[in-house]
Automatic annotation (TrEMBL), chain A:
An annotated GO BP: signal transduction
Organism: Rhizophagus irregularis (strain DAOM 197198w)
Record localization: Nucleus
Superkingdom, natural source: Eukaryota
Record carries keyword Phosphoprotein: no
Pfam families: Cullin, Cullin_AB, Cullin_Nedd8
Name of the molecule in the record: Cullin CUL3
Keyword terms, alphabetized: Isopeptide bond, Nucleus, Ubl conjugation
Amino acid sequence: MSSRKQPKGKIRPPKKPNSADAQFNDNWDRLAQAIREIHKKNASILSFEELYRNAYNMVLHKNGDKLYNGVREVITQHLEEVAVSQVVPAFPLSGASSSQTNPNGAGGANFLKVLKTVWEDHTTCMLMIRDILMYMDRVYAKTANVPLVYDLGLDLFRDTIVRSQNYPIQNHLLEVLLQQIKLERENEIIDRTNVKASIDMLLELTDASTKDTVYATDFENKFLETSSEYYRVEGQMLVGEYDAPEYMKKVDKRLNEEEQRVRHYLSQTTEPKIRNIVEEELISKHLKTVIEMENSGLIPMLRNEKMDDLGRMYKLFGRVVKGHDEMKSAISDYIRELGKAINETVTSNTTAEGGNAASGDKQTGATVAVRWVQEVLDLKDKFDKVQNLALSNDKAFQTSFNEAFEYFINKNSKSPEFISLFIDDNLKKGLKGKTEEEVDSVLDKTITLFRFIGEKDVFERYYKQHLAKRLLLGRSVSDDAERGMIGKLKVECGYQFTTKLEGMFNDMRISSDTMTDFKEYLDKSVLEKPKLDLSVTVLTSTFWPMNLSASPRCNLPPELTKACGTFQNFYLGRHSGRRLTWQSNMGTADIRGSFKARKHELNVSTYQMVILLMFNDKQDGESLSYEQIKGESDIPEADLKRNLQSLACAKYKILVKEPKGKEINPGDQFNFNNDFTAPLQRIKIQTVASKVESEGERKETREKVEEARKHQTEAAIVRIMKDRKTMEHNLLIAEVVKQLQSRFMPNPALIKKRIEALIEREYLERATGDRRVYNYLA
Amino acid sequence: FFTSLSKDFSVLLDHSDDYNVIIRVGDEKNEKTFQAHSVILRARSPYFKRALSNDWARKEDGSTVFTKPNVSPAVFEIILKYIYSGTIDLNNQDPSHILELLIASDELLLQELFNHVQDYLL
C-alpha cells in the first residue's frame, strides 16, 4: 500500500453517526493521512485540535487497539520505504572491513550521515505523532500495557532499520563505526558528529529481551573485542620498537585518547571497560618487559634519576593489579644489589688493610666506617628523592624500600659499629667546616639508618664506648650536639635505652662540680699543696662501658700518687661507702718538655707521661730498653706498645727508637729526642683514636653483647612470668620476642636456654602434667 | 499567599494587554472568542502544552489562533477560569454544563479538574 492511493488533504463532510465502523474508518483515514503528511514534513497544513480529537474519539469508542495497530503499520511502512530509498543506497562500497583506503572511510562517513538524517527525521516525526496521539498514550497504552507511541516508534526503527531483516544495515553500521574508530586511532581525522549521532541512536534504542540499550547489546562487545585485538597487536609492536620511556608515553597517550573518545562519542559505561582493555594489553602484559628493558627500563631510570619517567611508570603501572608490586620488587632488588656493593667495597677495604691495620694508620678504620655510612646515606637520599618526586610518597613503596635497606644493612655485621663511628666522627669533627645545623641534619639522617639496625643493643654498646672516649678525652664538639643525639635515640628507643648514656653525662657534670669543690678544699686546707694540678673525673661504674672494677697495673710517679691520695681522702670524706679505683689508662696529662730548640707543652696520655718521666732521670743519650720501661712502669703490654708507638713512630717523635721501624718489639732501645722540633708550642700526642675494632676486640664485644643478652632475656622472662604466673612455652617465647625486638632479635633457642637456666635456679618450674607450661615461683 | 495568587491570575485572564492566544470556541451557532496567554495555558495543561508548541501553533497577526468547536463557550469559560485561578464553583452551574465539563476536562487532559467534577457528580 502506498500513500499515493489515498486522496490527499481532502476535507470530508461530517459523517452521520449511523455506523460506528464507518465513523472509525473515516477518522482513521484522516489520521493515517496526517501521519503520512508528517512523514513528508507537511505538518504545517494539519490541525492539532482536529487530529487529537479524532484519536480521542477513537479511543473513547473503544477503538484504541485498532488505532494503535494502524499507527504501527503506517510507521513500519514508512520506515521500510526509508530503508530502501535512503539507507541501502548509502551502503559503503563492499569490503568496508578493509579500511586501508580513504574512499572507504569517506563512504562510511557518508553512510553515517545518511543514518543520522534518517534517525533525526524519524524522531522528529515521532514527537509530532506522539503529540496528536497523547490521549491514546494516556488512556489506551496504559490500560492495554503496550509501549507509548514514541517508544513504539523507537522499537519499529530498531527492527525495521537498525536490525532490518531485509537488508544488512546492522552489519554495515557496526563495521563503519568500528572502522571510523580505527581510522581515528591511526591518527586520521574523522567526523565525530556523525559517529556520535549513530552511537546516540544506538543508546536510545532498547533491546527487547535484555532491556539493555542496543548500544550495549549490539555495539559495545564488538567494539571491545576489536579494541582488545588492536591493542594486543599494538602492544607487541611498541614493545619491540620503543624504549621504556617512549613506550610509556605512547601508552599514556593511548589511555588519554580512549578516554577522550568515550567522552566525545561513546557511552560513559564503556569507559572502564575500554580502559581495562588498554591497561591489560599495553600495561599488564608488558609489565616485566618494560621494567626490564635493558638500557631504558626501571633500573636505568633509577640510575639516571629520570624522575619524570619514573613518575609516569608509577602512575601507569598503578592502574593494573600487579604493576606496583613488580615495580616495588624490582626497585627493592636494586637497592639490595647496591647495598651489597657498598658492603662489599667495605669488606674488601678492611681485609686489604687487615695487614697493616696495626701499623698506626689509625684513621683508615674510621674512614671506612664513615664512608660506608655516607654511601648508605647517599643511597637513602637518592631513594627518598625518588620516593618524593616520582612515587607520590607511596607508603607501600616506602615500606618495601625500608625492608631492602634493613636487609643489606643487617647483612653487614659491622653496621652498628659503623653507624656509631659515623656519629662519633660527626660529633668530633663538627666544628671543622660544618655548622651545628648541618651536623644535626646529618645525625637526623643517621637515625633513619639506626632504625634499620636489628641489633640495637650492639649499637648501644659501641655508642657507649665511643661516647666515653669523647667525653673523657674532651673530643665532643658540644654538649648540645651530644645531648641532641641522645634525645634522638631516646625518641627512637625509649628511656631505658639512654639512661646509662645520660648517666655518663651526669658523671661528667658532677665531676666538674667536685673539682671546683676540691680546689676550694685545697685552698682552705693546711695540707701541703700537690705539685701538680689534678683533675679527676669520677665515673659510676655501671654507666660506663669499660671494666672499672679494678685499677689497671701502672706505677705512677710519686707526685701523682700523692695527689691522688689527697683527692681520695677528700672524696671519700664527702661520700662515705664509695670505692674509688684509678683508671690510669684513660687519663691525660700536660707536661712541659725542654728540647734543644725550645720548650714544648705536650699533651699526652697518662701512660705516655709515665714513660716520658722515666727519661727525666737519664743523662742525654742514655737509652732505655723496652724491657726496662715495661718493668719499671708495669703498664700492660698492649697499652705500652701502643703508647710507645705514639711517642716514637708517629707524627711527633719525642722518643727515638733503635732499631727504627713501625713496630715495637722486645729489645728495642728508646732515646729521648733532644733534637725534636715542631712549629707549635703546644703539641697533642695522638692517642689511638677510635677505629674499627680488630677481630679480637670484635669477638670480645660480641661476647659482652651475648652476655648482656642473656641477662636481658632472663629479665624479660621473669618480668612476663611474674605478671602471668603461668604460661605456655610458645606464648612465652612470642612475648619475650615482642619485648626484646626493639633491641635485638632473640632466637628461640637462646630463650629456651634461659628458661632452663631459670628453672635450674628455681625461678620457674614446669607444670605437673603439662611439660610445655611453666609456672612462676615467687 | 495562594488566595492572592489566584485572584491576581483571574484578573490577568480578564484584563490583560499581552494576550497572545485567541481561542475560538463552540460551533457556528454558538461561537465565542476567548483571549489568553500561551505561557499560562501551556504551563497548566499538557494538552495546550502540545497544541501551542511550535510544531502545531497556527499564527495570525502575531497571535496563535486555536479553534475548539466541540466545547461550548460557557463550559470553556469555566475551564479557563480554572486554568488561571485554580478555582471553580460547580454549585451555580447548569447541570448539563457539568456533564459537558467532565467530558471536556477528560479530552483536554485536565486530570485534576476531571477528578473534581467526577467526585461532585457521585
